[in-house]
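Reader question, answered in our methods column.
A reader sent in the components of a multi-part assembly and asked whether the whole thing could be modeled at once rather than chain by chain. We filled in our standard form and ran it. Here is what they sent:
COMPLEX SIZE: three components
ENTRIES:
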Amino acid sequence: MSLPPDYEELVLTVAESIPEGRALAYGDVAELIGAGGPRQVARVMSLAGAAVPWWRVVRADGTLPERLRAGAAQRYRAEGTAVGRDGRVDMRLARWRPPLGLMT
DNA sequence: CTCTTGACGCCGG
DNA sequence: TCCGGCGCCAAGA
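And here is the structure of the entire assembly that came back:
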């Protein structure tokens, strides 16, 4: 399966639909879209602008790469995201359960 | 065409 | 828990 031409748009749309205080893993986004994988989603996020809530799309273990951690921590504090003492998002609590009809 | 590069993920030690 | 190691796969050089 190759990536659809509007893949970037799909990824950004999903990212923007994540509610405050919740998060999805790169792999979750890929699954929702039904195309590509975590690395493809990550690539799109790396190119995305400040308009998208990038801090709500994290690694499966709730972390983000080092250079993004400080900024993300601010957002998490501001929107009450569930994070552990180590600063990583507690995916068991913060993981967003998307509405079934999201990708139709 | 081959090779490297990642905002990744899972598994075993 | 924390690493290494390996698989993964689109893009760009």
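What stands out: The mean pLDDT of chain A is 97. Helices of chain A lie at 7-17, 26-33, 38-47, 66-79, 91-94.
Send us your own complexes using the same form.
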